[in-house]
Design a protein that fits this description.
Blueprint: E1 3-4, H1 24-40, E2 42-44, E3 47-49, E4 56-57, H2 59-75, H3 88-95, E5 99-108, H4 113-122, H5 124-130, E6 137-143, E7 146-154
Parallel strand pairs: 1-5, 4-6
Antiparallel strand pairs: 2-3, 5-7, 6-7
Length: 159
């Protein structure tokens, strides 16, 4: 059974600049930061989240995250739905990711990945998405002031 996780973030901080596709060093920095938290466990609000397995970068999730970040920037909205009403599950599927679990964190206005990660950790719903034990893929896209983080676990291949 597919699990659809739609998580909300409403952070309004001015600023931001366009950022191109992350290079391998930037990808590793983001993955390492998230995996450090996942490896150590953390508190999401008052709830302790035990350590969970690491995630890896997924280019298909990056494409879906980038599409959402571009749409939010181009059409000046901030939402967990695309401009044509698609939710996270529909958007990652459209990008070619055959998912069992899909989740999304959004940020607006943060100047760096460290800053948006800090804000996600302060939000219970975003923190629990970061610590979701069933996801194993991740990607982050930034366009101007908008950040989109996609998580997923793919459907097993039919043999």
């Amino acid at each position: 059974m597919k699990t659809l996780l739609i998580l909300f973030l409403m952070i309004s901080v001015n600023g931001g600049t366009p950022v191109s596709k992350p290079d391998i060093s930037q990808k590793n920095t983001m993955i390492d930061a998230v995996n450090k938290i996942r490896r150590e466990g953390c508190y999401c609000g008052k709830r302790y989240m035990a350590p969970v397995p690491a995630v890896v970068w997924n280019d298909t999730l990056y494409q879906s995250a980038l599409t959402q970040a571009n749409e939010m920037n181009d059409f000046h909205f901030f939402a967990h739905f695309s401009k044509d009403g698609l939710n996270i599950g529909e958007r990652v599927k459209k990008a070619g990711y055959d998912w069992m679990v899909a989740g999304e964190n959004l940020g607006e206005g943060q100047e760096s990945f460290d800053e948006v990660l800090y804000d996600w950790l302060k939000s219970y719903s975003h923190c629990t998405m970061l610590m979701h034990p069933k996801v194993n893929d991740m990607a982050v896209a930034r366009v101007d002031k908008y950040w989109v983080q996609h998580f997923g676990k793919q459907m097993p291949l039919n043999k």
